[in-house]
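Internal ticket #5521
Category: modeling
Description: The requester needs a full-assembly model to guide mutagenesis choices. All entity lines are attached below as received. Residue total reported by intake: 770.
Assigned to: D.W.
Attached entities:
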Amino acid sequence: MDLSFSAEDLAFRGEVQAFITDNLPAEIRRRVQKGEHLSKEDQVAWQLILNQRGWAAPGWPKKYGGTGWTVTQRYIFDEETAGVCPPLTPFGLSMVGPVIYTFGNPEQKAHYLPRILKAQDWWCQGYSEPGSGSDLASLKTKAVADGDHYIVDGHKIWTTQAHEADMIFCLVRTDASVKQQEGISFLLIDMKTPGITVRPIITIDEGHSINEVFLDNVRVPKKNLIGQEGKGWTYAKFLLGHERTGIAQVAHSKKRLARLKAIARAELVEGGPLIADTTFRDKLAQVEIELMALEYTNLRILSESAKGKPPGPEASILKIRGSEIGQRLTEMAVESLGYYAAPYEGGRDGSNQPIGPDYAAGLMPAFLYGRAFTIYGGSNEIQRNVIAKMVLGL
Amino acid sequence: MDFSLSDEQRQLQDSVGRFVRDRYPFEQWRKITDTPEGFAGENWRQMAELGWLGVSLPEEAGGLGGSPVDTMVILEGLGRGLVAEPYLSTVVLGGGFLVLGGTPEMRERELPKLAAGDLKLAFAHAETQSRFSLEDVVTSAKAAGGGYVLNGRKIVVYDAPAADKLIVSARTGGAGREREGISLFLIDRDAPGVHLRAYRTLDRRRAADVTLEKVAVDAGALIGVRDQALPLIEQVVDHAIAALAAESVGAMQLLTETTTEYLKTRKQFGQPIGNFQALQHRMVDILIATEQARSMSYMVTMKLDRPARERSRAAAAAKVQIGQSGRFVGQQAIQLHGGMGMSDELNVGHFAKRLMMIDMLYGNADHHRQRFIALE
């Protein structure tokens, strides 16, 4: 047992820090630090800068244009970039990318992977449907073969970034006569195809990041099928299990905590700084300690995967605790503002001159949008079901 | 970064596992803790023979020169059996004080005995007014005739009744809660003026309130630097906290396994109660609490050799987590066992009680949250 980083890892940390200092545009850095809304342009700009260096896809193998980093290196990269650089948008880089290089054919790999790296294709995920949330395998969107095409009809929902996406990866039903899970296929669809309509869903933060996607008689070439027909559920499960190193959101929560402390030093209560208020300080310490425990649980699981043991269902612990702690921090940030939690003009983009202190910008939207942490990616209740079944054998 | 055990540590883990299986089935634990001593001398000798009593002592003192991880492995194993022998008091605390603060003569004289199982120790620090504050010491040690005379009263000294010697904190200077002026003394438990009121504790261990009445010791009884013992006390208590963390993880792991098994076998409404989602989710929360405690146990163990501030902040955080996790796991294990959980005949309640005592020992979660804040 040993907590220390190797000399190579420490050198790598320095390399990442230097790269950020030299390459992150000042305006983007400012927006990230202020917690302002980041546009697609900001995210693309940063991804292209990273890609120049070969760092756009931390989780990919080198031969597909990834970094080939060890889990420790990825952990370091997360730590250094969280809260400083725009987060990499996950749908292409962390989700469909690994599915394509694992299950796609050579043409699909050659076509899509470079386009993901260069942000030429912006992806969204077509999984949930109005009648299929936690019970995803009951999905009804159907794809019927018609010559060398599928005709897709259905309705996807909660589709993040669909309004900005070039492509959507969809779970569709290609066979209604077999067991639910065995009739599902994994299809890549161009968002410009006739018959696709995107309708915004405004969330409780008054922002627009998620959508409904209607598919009406959409013709999709059969070459856009990943792997085999009827194996889509397997690929979907692979995807869910694949990207677990960042699932605990430890680096982000640490940044949130640091920001919260800074606010609590500036805010006043009873004539003294909020951070000296015993009730507030106590709650702050409690969440900091829980975050520490999560951090080391995360490191334990990472160090197992470094030895080649893929993260199993126990990684659901990371999702549960990570989302709970993330929510706690966003809630305390709002609490720390006192009355200035109330002004809510200009939505979440922070483009208007904020009312109240500068640091108030974005905190209430972050809290509101953060209610989704425990819902998306498999709700925490589903995660508990998974642990009960797969880990405890109940 | 690596969280795996070495081959030697894995062997040690197996060896402790065998010891607990052979010597500490639950009914045996009950018999052992019913004896007047509250533990088995034979087990203590066995621990000495296995080298566990000297695991953290330097090799020249008859020890194995092991790391905190070795101690962690032992305590986690002992935690699964509620092992009652005074390992924490003698080896972790007593051994820790002697190794880090003992004079060369003291170390040469006492450490081989400790490793051989011929010396049991107890650490007397708490007083009626001190609660969990290590620096709140009223017991006095006045210089007299080249030595010291101690007067005062120490409370709830775990393992004092069986101890050969006590390690006592006392004021040689300063007053109240001042960090300066505290010294540590090694005194014979049978020395004139040492009076014990011995009793059984909630976790069926043995403790005593200790009154010191004009107890005379010579200058060689001083451990560490006169007036400056507090940093040493904090360091050794941080080691004890790491050991308690490991013990609590063993106990929580046992409760997690036992309760999961119960959910699979106990039937109501014609099916195993583990089919019910309310109980499944509670069980998952028990598992998570145990795993979070385990992470903090590893973390604090590996930070024991860091600079004082970092070490203490790690220990404080770990103590908060294990206290909270331990209470949750203990109480929910009782709850999920239903009426059976209330029965003294079942092991579950006894594990829950030990976990409560672990939360209390060397400061409960509330105390250590405040310490964590103060050390920011």
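Resolution: model delivered.
Comment from assignee: Chain A has three domains: 7-88, 123-232, 244-391.
Ticket closed.
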